[in-house]
Design goal:
The protein has 117 residues and is of the alpha+beta class. Helices cover 32% and strands 27% of the residues. The chain has three helices and six strands, in the order βααββαβββ.
């Protein structure tokens, strides 16, 4: 079954990252590289990407009186996984460094005819 793991950031997590030394940033990136290597070896990672900061976002569509997607959290990146179970997707999500201090969400992917079961 496919799952998307959504990684959220916020101004505080962004400031923490920017305040790290080069060595600390390298260590954080090494955690991601190890996770990617492990998921590639198991065949569970379809794709993962880091996203640009929100100030580079362009919205399309009609603005109405609500609801609005205005929050301090922003989507910072994602993994698209192909796992045997939701439990495995959650296990992987717990390995994402932001899971210890931010929001990481695991969501089943819907196909054209509903969720894969």
């Amino acid at each position: 079954m496919k799952y998307v793991v959504l990684i959220y950031g916020n101004p505080e997590s962004r400031a923490a990252w920017e305040g790290m030394s080069d060595e600390q940033r390298a260590a954080g990136l090494a955690l991601y590289q190890q996770l990617n290597d492990d998921l590639d070896a198991s065949g569970e990672r379809i794709v993962s990407e880091r996203l640009a900061f929100p100030e580079l976002t362009k919205r399309v569509g009609i603005t109405t009186d609500g609801p609005f997607a205005e929050a301090k959290e922003f989507l910072a990146g994602f993994y698209l996984l192909d796992c045997e179970s939701e439990e495995r997707a959650l296990e992987i999500a717990h390995r994402i460094p932001e899971a210890s201090f931010g929001a990481v969400e695991v969501r089943p992917v819907m196909g054209l005819h509903g969720p894969e079961l």
